[in-house]
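[Automated response] Your request has been received and processed.

Submitted sequence:
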Amino acid sequence: MSWPAGSKLFVEMWPLILAGITDRAHRIDFTARLLQVLIDDDMDPYDVEDVHADVRAALRKIGVELAQSELFPDEEEDA
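Generated structure:
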């Protein structure tokens, strides 16, 4: 899978994840695992870091530094 395809797939799935996993901690854990798979398959995390705060929390959880962290100064570093 190319990195644009992985990003597009994640963005299309995100509303379903958000609606289907109502517990925020569980949603972040699930999203972190999913993002790790997509990143391992060559997705660029930069493409999805602006989707939602929980996505950024999930990226941080797996050790990904945000490319534009200055855009999100009020978010906690650890979720």
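Summary generated for your ticket: The chain has one domain: 3-65. Residues 3-65 form one domain.
If you did not submit this request, please reply to this message.
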